[in-house]
Each structure stands twice: as C-alpha cells, then as structure tokens.
Specification:
Elements lengths: L1 H22 L9 E11 L21 E3 L8 E6 L5 E8 L7 E5 L1 H7 L6 E9 L5
Parallel strand pairs: 1-5, 2-4
Antiparallel strand pairs: 1-6, 2-5, 3-4, 3-6
Length: 134
C-alpha cells in the first residue's frame, strides 16, 4: 500500500521539477580569457595631463586608460588589485612601462579606483576578455 502511495507523489514531484527546469534560464557560459598577466602596476602622475600618448590621443588622468608594452591600442583590460580584489577596466592608449619591474602604467583615476593611489604601486592581474564581456 505504501508503494502505491509513493508512486503518485514521485510522479508529481518529477512533473514539478520538469516544469521548473523548463522555465529556468541557462547559466551564462564562461568567457574565454584572451590574455592574462600578473605583475606590478604603477600610475602616471597627473602632471602629464595634456601630453600626447603613443596612439595620438591626449592624456587625461581622470580617464580610465593605461600604457602596456605590447597590447594593441584600444584593447580594454580588466585590472584587478590582488591585495584588495578591486577591479577596473582601462583602455590601452600608450606604450610602457619602460621598466621590466612593471607590467602596466595606469591613469590616476584607475589607480584611485584600485585603491593603489597612496602607495603608488600594486600587484595586479590583467585580463583581456571578449569585447562584449561586461
């Protein structure tokens, strides 16, 4: 008798689960990382505001921009401060840094957002993802 009662309950439970699964949206697929690099970052002094960058634009310390030795101009890079987990997106518009101790030079705005402004240098991770990645 108990087996007969369990069967309808199990069928109802399976139907509810199937209906819920049909309405659930699939989880977004993980975005591939096209480039990743970890190292030290510094930032440009705001005294450089108004100077021309390597891509021909005018440097603005309040914009979220960066210098990288090899990434193409216009590349958007997600920079994460390893110490505090803060993240910012910057656009590469200049070349540098010109010391092997550093992997990227950031604008003052980006340095402030990452929480590295006072110290002047931080260990960071750089990631270039698909262009449509938030």
């Amino acid at each position: 008798m108990q087996t007969a009662m369990r069967k309808p309950a199990l069928i109802a439970l399976a139907m509810i689960a199937a209906a819920s699964a049909a309405r659930a949206e699939p989880a977004p697929a993980a975005q591939p990382v096209l480039f990743s690099q970890t190292g030290r970052a510094s930032y440009y002094d705001s005294a450089l505001d108004g100077n021309e960058t390597a891509d021909g634009s005018i440097f603005d310390g309040s914009a979220f921009t960066a210098a990288h030795r090899s990434l193409p101009f216009g590349t958007v890079v997600r920079v994460t401060n390893v110490a505090n987990g803060r993240t910012v997106k910057v656009r590469v518009n200049d070349r540098g840094p010109f010391t092997r101790r550093l992997v990227i030079d950031l604008s003052e705005a980006a340095a402030r957002e990452l929480g590295m402004f006072r110290r002047g240098i931080a260990r960071v991770t750089l990631k270039v993802l698909r262009a449509d990645q938030p």
